[in-house]
From TrEMBL:
This is VWA3B protein. The gene is Vwa3b.
Amino acid sequence: QPLVSSSKWLQLHGLKRNKLSLSQILSQIGFQHRKDYVTTLGKLVASRYADGLFPQYKRAQDGSVYNLTAKKELILHFVDCLMGAIELYKQRMEWLTSESRQIFGVIQERCIVIVLDFGSVAPSEFDLCRDALSMVLVEQVTQIAKFNLIRAAQDLTKWQQKSTPVSDHTVKSAVTWLWKLDHMTAASHTSSAEALLEAMSDEAVSS
């Protein structure tokens, strides 16, 4: 799936975009039972001619009442549309909470620098971190324009001197570099900040 934010995804696939929100459906399957103030009479007048003629639906949000006039076929059509929307939402949620996205979210920037700060993790955790980073490189970084990796340490280490265009070759090179890193390296209390500053100094990186 393309790396788009949930807000952009909803603009394309949301209920409102597809005229499936409750108010949109109600306007297509009936009409509102109104109680309006008539200025000439100086009082509220209710349209009672529909009482008993149609099934009615009362919205819990604002208490408005709708007279339902649609045939069964149209109601079932909306049921099918809503079931399809529910399935699409489920698929989106499963995608958002799987693989590299459950750790890194959905990368939306076109150019990124990933700062690696392993601290003093155990060897097994170090490998888990590298597994996760390899996953995000293969699954998400392959879909953007440029990237770089910087390791926070006393002697700051960079995969490339500046952000590099994404290709199969550069992603494989970055994964190989990642797995050649030493588990323990000397660190200082300022190494994390220095690595972040170095990442931000890349002119291609906006944030």
